[in-house]
Amino acid sequence: MKRFIAYYDSHLFDLNRLDNFYRNIAQIDDFEKLSFLELVDKFDRMDTEERLKNLGQPKKSDELEIKGAFKLNELVTALNWPYYNKIDIRIGLLQFPYFGLTLPKSFNYGAIGTVIGHEVTHGFDNKGKNYDENGSMEEWLGREFQERFRTRADCFEKLYNTTDVLWYKNGMVLKTNLTNNGAFTLHENIADYGGIQLSLRVNVCLLKKQSSRPVAIAPLATMAVPRYSLSHLDSR
């Protein structure tokens, strides 16, 4: 599995490559007068047009992969690109509360480590497992594995189908009449489980090496608490 962490060294300091990458942007009328949202829309349209030109053509992994890496830099996020067999950690995540050079290793393992483990696991979830090492959609896993995977995936679905959706209001945690849709969120649930498992295993190894120091796993519970409206959750 390949990885993209923050930026590509080969492109960041290569002026010719940067000029070539941004050549179409220089042709946008009134570039400096456009708002942020208008620029994002322009870039998305340009990217879509270029991808449509390559539709049905052999995959040009290097250039399209790198151009994909330059997208979404305004987001604090991490991604898994199954068609490139690559995890993508955006630079916005490499700061507190996910990462810090002065923070204990155990904290970083629990925070950014869980995120990395989450994205790696996506490569083997109910969607990612359908792509091979080259990013091509192919059933490369045997029938026995597929049957065992389906059995375990059914357990995840049933578990989350009975998990209540909580609502945070005025500092209080309230119970709603909604439950999770285990089938809809299956890939994320598998990735969450895998990320936490990998993080805990690394922390256990750290504990064995540094038995005199406590291992902090607090980031596992506090680093990501998304919030949605009840109407949005009900529609999902």
Automatic annotation (TrEMBL):
GO terms for biological process: protein processing. Residues 84-203 form the Peptidase M13 C-terminal domain. Pfam families: Peptidase_M13. GO terms for cellular component: plasma membrane. SUPFAM superfamilies: Metalloproteases ('zincins'), catalytic domain (SSF55486). It comes from the Eukaryota. PROSITE patterns: NEPRILYSIN. GO terms for molecular function: metalloendopeptidase activity. Coiled coil: none annotated. This is Peptidase M13 C-terminal domain-containing protein.
